[in-house]
Amino acid sequence: AAAIREVYQLALSRLPTRQELRLGQQYLLEQEQLIAAEQMASGKPVKECSLLALAEYCQVILNLDEFLYVE
Predict the structure, then answer these.
(1) Gap between the Cα atoms of 59 and 69, Å rounded
(2) In this structure, are residues 12 and 61 in contact, taking their beta carbons and an 8 Å threshold?
(3) What is the mean pLDDT of the chain?
(4) How far apart are CA 50 and CA 31, in angstroms?
(5) Which residues contact 5 (CB under 8 A, 6 or more apart)?
(6) 5 φψ region: left (φ > 0), alpha (ψ -120 to 50), beta (else)
(7) Are 7 and 58 in contact (CB under 8 A)?
(8) What's the CA gap between 39 and 47, in Å, rounded?
(9) Are 3 and 54 in contact (CB under 8 A)?
(10) N or C: which end of the chain has fewer CB within 10 A?
(11) Confidence of residue 70 (pLDDT cuts 50, 70, 90)
């Protein structure tokens, strides 16, 4: 939750809503599982899944209309 709050604060200059926080946590968990599964399937050691998931989440936030356009 702290990482999600920090991403929102840095990228959007605000904290996430409860729903955004919940969805962010769900996204990170699912991405970590997918990354771990991909690493296992390719025979690579499973490592840094949470960091890789967070990097992907940052890409999602940076593609939000709220980040890209001034209202």
Answers:
(1) 16
(2) yes
(3) 93
(4) 8
(5) 15, 16, 21
(6) alpha
(7) yes
(8) 8
(9) yes
(10) C
(11) confident
More confident of the two residues 69 and 7: 7
| Gap between the Cα atoms of 41 and 25, Å rounded | 24
- Residues belonging to the chain: 71
Concatenated DSSP letters for 33-71? Answer: HHHHHHHHHTT-----HHHHHHHHHHHHHHTSHHHHS--
> Could you tell me the two tokens for 37?
């599964």
Rounded CA separation 22/24 (Å) = 5
pTM for this model (two decimals)? 0.87
In the structure encoding, which two tokens stand for residue 55, read together? 């990097």
Residue 39 is which amino acid? Q
- pLDDT for residue 44: 80
